[in-house]
Amino acid sequence: MDHRFVFDEGAESCCNQRTREERQAHQCSATLVRHGIDSLELPLIQHMHLPDLDRLTSLLTVDCKSGRSCYNEAETVTGKLEATFDWIIITSPEAGKVFLDAWKAAGTPSVRVGVVGSGTASIFDEAVQSSKQYLDMAFAPSKATGKVLALELPKNGNDKCTVLYPASAKASTDIEEGLSGRGFEVTRLNTYTTAPVNHVDQYLLELALSVPVVTVASPSALRVWANLTASRQWDNAVACIGETTASAAKKLGFRNIYHPTSPGLEGWVSSVLEALEVHEQVQKV
């Protein structure tokens, strides 16, 4: 079997649940096994909550004694208080998980959610089943990128459409800049960030340096890999989950970059297979 590595962005999780890249890594690994490709995982990134997470919970919280929320609200026909934000925008599975924790802590107020793609939407599946009347998954763009989402998000006839955007501190400004340019009022909250893990397993690192294809699910993990390989003259293939990570790879100086046109697991796996095929052809020369 050929070997390639998946970097997961969640070496630590306070709730002992798989983080975004752990889930994606295991899904990718399982799919590649069906193609006869073995894989190992090298955790590079950990998530950390930021003070804006408390602010998010406060914005969503309904005071049980007064029946009022911590900001202006409207009451639905079900009697449930709902946020005055016209949209909650979620652009990554990890941001979705963090949002759901705050949303549940706030008493599950009624919200309308727009997500960047199917991977992010899947984080909401369980919550939607139990709280469908309060969690309206109302929008996803034609292409799973922040720029396209900002271009396509509907105003629903509201000239001053308001958006709450909880995100990673390291997320780009594409969402708020694109939406603000269209007249939306955007409140961005940096609810979490990523940082390198405290320890990288040296045995796994040496194995990773020798494999023909490394797969990466985020720019954050890619930056850590770039730092680890800076003095190694490493020049093997990088298979990225989508265009954003691939763009980061190019900026970091990687040359053999593969990525799908649209972000997602199937395209990611196809990129890995393509990179391996090219590697095998080069080896035959």
TrEMBL record:
Entry keyword set: Lyase, Porphyrin biosynthesis
The UniProt record lists the keyword NAD: no
Function according to Swiss-Prot or TrEMBL: Catalyzes cyclization of the linear tetrapyrrole, hydroxymethylbilane, to the macrocyclic uroporphyrinogen III.
Record-linked CDD domains: HemD (cd06578)
Gene3D superfamilies: 3.40.50.10090
Organism: Solanum lycopersicum
Phylogenetic placement of the source organism: Eukaryota, Viridiplantae, Streptophyta, Embryophyta, Tracheophyta
Entry's Gene Ontology cellular component terms: chloroplast
GO molecular function: uroporphyrinogen-III synthase activity
Entry protein name: Uroporphyrinogen-III synthase
The reaction(s) this protein catalyses: hydroxymethylbilane = uroporphyrinogen III + H2O
Assigned protein family: Belongs to the uroporphyrinogen-III synthase family.
Lyase listed as a keyword: yes
Tetrapyrrole biosynthesis uroporphyrinogen III synthase domain location: 29-269
One Gene Ontology biological process: protoporphyrinogen IX biosynthetic process
EC number: 4.2.1.75
